[in-house]
Design goal:
The protein is an alpha+beta fold. 22% of the residues lie in helices and 29% in strands.
C-alpha cells in the first residue's frame, strides 16, 4: 500500500469515528417509582411524577443493587432471573426490563432501519431496528409497547421517537423489554431455541446460556461503553471465544439471590402499598348471585383514592378463579382500569355452584358465590338470615327481610326450596306481611302499615309466597326490651335475627299524658310523628286523627283518609262524632259553646277529661289540639 493510500484510509477512519453518533438510552424520562405516579398513564403525569432516567454508571450493578429506585425502574437485568431481577449471571433474561408508566415515550438508540413494527406473539407490540456496527449489523429490540409510531422499512434517526411503553404481550406491568441482538441469522427479536420448558423456566433456570451469550449482549454495558464492549465475531471460533470471555466476566460480576431483595419481594411490597392507597370495591348486578342457565350478568370493579378514580395499569394483573364448567368470565385477566371502574362479564353455563374469586397475586379483592340453576333445580333451606332494618321505636313499624340459605350459608335467590317457613317474634313486637310476590309490588312496602287486624305473633309462608326468595314483612315494636325474630322450617329452627332493643320515644317522658301515649303506642292505636319522636306538643293532623280513631275503636270505626291540616278542639270532637256516632246528652255545659257544638264538646265533661286549667268552664273550641291531648282523649274514651 502506498503512503498516499494509507493516509487516505486513516483519514476516512478518523473522520468516521469522530462524527459517529453516540449510542443513547431508549428512554429519556421515566415515572417516579412510587404508587402515586407509575401506575397512572404518562399523559396524566405532573412534572413531579417525571424524572430523568437514572443511569447505572459503568454498568456497576453491585453499586446500585440495594437502591430501591433503581431496582423498581430496572426491574430485570440481562442475564438475571425473573424471580431475582438483579441476580445477574444466574438466569437467562435476554434484555433489560425498564418499568415506567404506560405512554412513556421510547426512542431509537441510534440511526437505523426499522425491520419489525408489529404485534408479535409473547412480545406484544414490538419494534426491531437494524443499526450499522463495525462493518456489520446489530439490532435493538423494544417489546411490550403500547403504541408503535414507526413503520417497517422506515429510516430512523438517533433519538427519534418510535412509540411508547406499554403492557402488551406476555407482560406483568408497564415496561419496555429492551434487547440488543448480535446474531446475523435474521431471527429478530432473538430468542432461545430447543431449550426445553417455557419462557419462565428457561430464564429462571438459566438454561442454554451459551445461546444467550452468543446472540445478545448486555444492553446496559453496551450503552455505558458506547458500544466499545462489543466486538462482532467474523468466524464461529471468534463467536465462541467472545461467549467464553463474557461468561467469565459474568461469573466475576455475578450477584446471587442471597445478596439482594428479590424482584418478587419488591413487587409484593409495591402491591401492598398500592392496595393500601387505593380502595377496591365490587358490586354485582346478579340478583342473589343466582343465574339461570344462559343468563348473562356482570360484576363492576371500582378503584379510587379519596374520591379520585384510579386510571391506569395495575401493579400486577387481577386474575379471576372459578369453575369453568359452571360459568364463563370475561376478561379472565385484568391489567388496567379506566376511569375508576371495569366490568367483569359472567355467563351461566350449567347448573351448579362456584366461587368467583378476584385476586391480585394472592390478595383477594372479592369472593362471590355464584349459583346457576335450571327448571329442575331445588335447594334445601338449612339456614336463614333475618334483617331488622330500622331503629326500633314503639309506635313505629320497621321493615324486615327474610332470606333462606343453603348448607354453606349462601342466600337462596330465584331458586325454589321445599317446606314451610314460620317467623315468630317475642313478646316485645308483632309482625305482619304486605304479601309482596313480584317486583312491581315492592314500592308498596314504603307506604304499607299493619292494621289492627294484621298484627301477628307468627307468620307462615313457602318459597312461592316470596319475592324470588326474599320475604318482606313489617316489625311492630310494642314494648321496651329486646326484639328477636326466629325462623323455623317444618318446626326446626334455621335462623334468628340479631337482637335489637325497642324503646318508647324519648320525647314523651315530660308529657303530662305519658301513660296515655305509652298505652296507645303499645296497642298500636297511635303512631310516632317521625322515626324517633312522638312530638307530643305538635298539632294533630286530620289524617293522623282519623287513623288514630280508626285503630283505637276498630272494628267499630271505619278507616278514613285525611289531609295534613291541623285540627282545632271542636273539629276533633266533630270527627269523633262523625266516625263513632257519639255525642253528649249531659246538662253539663261549657260557657263558650252551645247547641250542637255543646253536644260534641260536653263529651269531655261526661268522661271527666280536663285538657287545661280553663276546664270545666271554657272549652276554647278554636284552640288547636295537640297530639298528646288527642292521645289522652282517645285513651280515656276507650277505657
Amino acid at each position: 500500500m502506498t503512503k498516499t493510500k494509507f493516509f487516505l484510509v486513516l483519514f476516512v477512519f478518523l473522520i468516521t469515528t469522530f462524527f459517529a453518533k453516540a449510542w443513547q438510552y431508549p428512554l429519556q424520562e421515566v415515572s417516579v417509582p412510587d404508587v402515586d405516579c407509575k401506575f397512572q398513564p404518562w399523559s396524566q403525569h405532573s412534572s413531579d411524577c417525571k424524572t430523568n432516567l437514572p443511569v447505572i454508571e459503568n454498568h456497576d450493578y453491585q453499586r446500585y443493587k440495594d437502591d430501591m429506585d433503581y431496582r423498581l425502574i430496572y426491574s430485570v437485568l440481562w442475564g438475571a432471573t425473573y424471580r431475582g431481577g438483579w441476580d445477574v449471571g444466574y438466569g437467562g433474561h435476554s434484555g433489560v426490563d425498564i418499568a415506567t408508566a404506560q405512554g412513556t415515550p421510547l426512542y431509537s438508540i441510534n440511526d437505523g432501519t426499522v425491520e419489525v413494527a408489529s404485534h408479535l406473539p409473547g412480545w406484544g407490540n414490538t419494534v426491531v431496528i437494524r443499526h450499522d456496527f463495525e462493518g456489520g449489523h446489530i439490532r435493538s429490540v423494544y417489546a411490550h409497547m403500547h403504541e408503535i409510531n414507526v413503520n417497517n422499512g422506515q429510516q430512523v434517526s438517533s433519538g427519534e421517537r418510535i412509540g411508547t411503553v406499554g403492557n402488551t404481550g406476555t407482560s406483568r406491568g408497564n415496561h419496555v423489554h429492551f434487547q440488543i441482538d448480535i446474531n446475523q441469522d435474521g431471527q429478530n427479536p432473538w430468542y432461545y431455541s430447543n431449550c426445553g420448558g417455557g419462557s419462565a423456566t428457561i430464564v429462571n433456570e438459566g438454561r442454554c446460556r451459551d445461546q444467550l451469550l452468543a446472540n445478545t449482549v448486555d444492553p446496559i454495558r453496551f450503552l455505558e461503553t458506547n458500544g466499545a464492549s462489543l466486538k462482532l465475531p467474523d468466524t464461529e471460533e471468534e463467536r465462541e471465544q467472545i461467549a467464553k470471555e463474557e461468561q467469565e466476566r459474568q461469573e466475576e460480576d455475578s450477584i446471587s439471590e442471597d445478596e439482594i431483595q428479590t424482584r418478587e419481594t419488591i413487587m409484593l411490597s409495591e402491591l401492598e402499598l398500592f392496595l393500601a392507597r387505593y380502595n377496591f370495591d365490587t358490586t354485582s348486578n346478579i340478583p342473589g348471585n343466582t343465574m339461570d342457565v344462559g343468563d348473562e350478568g356482570s360484576i363492576t370493579l371500582t378503584a379510587e383514592h379519596r374520591g379520585r378514580p384510579f386510571n391506569g395499569s395495575l401493579p400486577m394483573s387481577l386474575e379471576a378463579e372459578y369453575d369453568e364448567d359452571i360459568i364463563s368470565v370475561s376478561p379472565r385477566t385484568l391489567i388496567a382500569i379506566n376511569d375508576g371502574q371495569r366490568d367483569i362479564n359472567i355467563q351461566a353455563v350449567s347448573p351448579g355452584s362456584t366461587n368467583l374469586i378476584l385476586k391480585i397475586r394472592g390478595k383477594i379483592i372479592a369472593n362471590y358465590s355464584i349459583r346457576v340453576v335450571d327448571d329442575d333445580t331445588t335447594i334445601e333451606a338449612e339456614n336463614a338470615r333475618i334483617y331488622n332494618l330500622q331503629p326500633n321505636r314503639v309506635g313505629g313499624q320497621n321493615r324486615g327481610i327474610f332470606v333462606a340459605q343453603d348448607e354453606n350459608r349462601n342466600n337462596i335467590i330465584r331458586t325454589p326450596y321445599e317446606g314451610n317457613i314460620t317467623l315468630t317474634t317475642n313478646n316485645n313486637a308483632k309482625i305482619c306481611s304486605p304479601e309482596i310476590t313480584s317486583r312491581s309490588e315492592v314500592s308498596k312496602t314504603n307506604n304499607f302499615e299493619c292494621g289492627p287486624d294484621d298484627l301477628k305473633d307468627e307468620i307462615s309462608f313457602s318459597y312461592f309466597d316470596t319475592l324470588e326468595g326474599l320475604y318482606l314483612f313489617k316489625i311492630v315494636p310494642t314494648n321496651n326490651g329486646s326484639i328477636t325474630i326466629q325462623a323455623k322450617k317444618d318446626g326446626e329452627e334455621i335462623g334468628q335475627s340479631m337482637p335489637k332493643n325497642s324503646q318508647f320515644p324519648s320525647d314523651i317522658s315530660n308529657s303530662q299524658y305519658q301513660s296515655d301515649i305509652r298505652r296507645g303506642l303499645t296497642k298500636q292505636f297511635f303512631d310516632n310523628h317521625s322515626t324517633n319522636n312522638f312530638a307530643p306538643s305538635f298539632i294533630i293532623r286530620e289524617r293522623d286523627a282519623k287513623n288514630w280513631i280508626y285503630k283505637t275503636f276498630y272494628p267499630f270505626a271505619e278507616e278514613r283518609s285525611g289531609s295534613a291540616m291541623g285540627l282545632s278542639r271542636l273539629e276533633f270532637m266533630e270527627l269523633l262524632n262523625d266516625m263513632l256516632g257519639i255525642k253528649s246528652n249531659s246538662e253539663n255545659n261549657f260557657r263558650d259553646v252551645s247547641g250542637e257544638q255543646a253536644e260534641y264538646a260536653n263529651i269531655l265533661l261526661d268522661y271527666g277529661i280536663h285538657l287545661d286549667d280553663y276546664f270545666p268552664r271554657y272549652f276554647q273550641p278554636d284552640k288547636q289540639l295537640t297530639r298528646e291531648e288527642a292521645a289522652h282523649i282517645l285513651n280515656t274514651l276507650r277505657r
